């Protein structure tokens, strides 16, 4: 992890190690069959996620999942061997992930996100906006989030997060 910061705002922001990340699209009626082929659990409800030996999947839409694979090559090979129509796109290089944790994390994220973040349950997630950047938030615990950001928006998102930390620490 390249960078970690914590201050009196009570939030730690750290870079996460790169991961094999995929965008998966499959028709709802073929979801279960493809999930079995890939060795993944693909949740049906938007905003829910599931873990399996092959990785973790977050449902972003009725036919769309963000997949974090433990072995990207194995997942790709299983997908290629399948005769189930689907789209599996490797987006590993498109995004970086930050871990945001601590008692002030909801305040920090609310500085740039219009969504009611407290309504995302631990174990859930959502695609949303942070300032003008599209991000995916994974809520790992009451005070723990992961944020996936397109690389080109990373400087902007980091700037807003750092300013929000300063403001929270100052009681603004």
From TrEMBL:
<dbReference type="InterPro" id="IPR007375">
    <property type="entry name" value="SoxG"/>
</dbReference>
<dbReference type="InterPro" id="IPR027266">
    <property type="entry name" value="TrmE/GcvT-like"/>
</dbReference>
<protein>
    <submittedName>
        <fullName>Sarcosine oxidase subunit gamma</fullName>
    </submittedName>
</protein>
<dbReference type="Pfam" id="PF04268">
    <property type="entry name" value="SoxG"/>
</dbReference>
């Amino acid at each position: 992890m390249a960078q970690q910061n914590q201050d009196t705002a009570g939030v730690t922001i750290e870079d996460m190690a790169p991961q094999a990340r995929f965008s998966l699209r499959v028709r709802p009626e073929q979801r279960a069959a493809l999930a079995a082929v890939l060795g993944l659990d693909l949740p049906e409800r938007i905003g829910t996620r599931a873990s399996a030996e092959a990785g973790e999947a977050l449902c972003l839409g009725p036919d769309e999942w963000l997949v974090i694979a433990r072995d990207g090559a194995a997942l790709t090979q299983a997908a290629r061997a399948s005769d189930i129509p689907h789209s599996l796109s490797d987006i590993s290089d498109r995004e970086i992930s930050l871990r945001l944790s601590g008692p002030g994390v909801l305040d920090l994220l609310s500085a740039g996100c219009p969504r009611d973040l407290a309504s995302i349950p631990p174990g859930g997630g959502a695609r949303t906006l942070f300032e003008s950047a599209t991000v995916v938030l994974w809520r790992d615990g009451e005070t723990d989030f992961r944020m996936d950001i397109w690389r080109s928006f990373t400087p902007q998102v980091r700037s807003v997060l750092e300013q929000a930390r300063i403001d929270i620490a100052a009681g603004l």
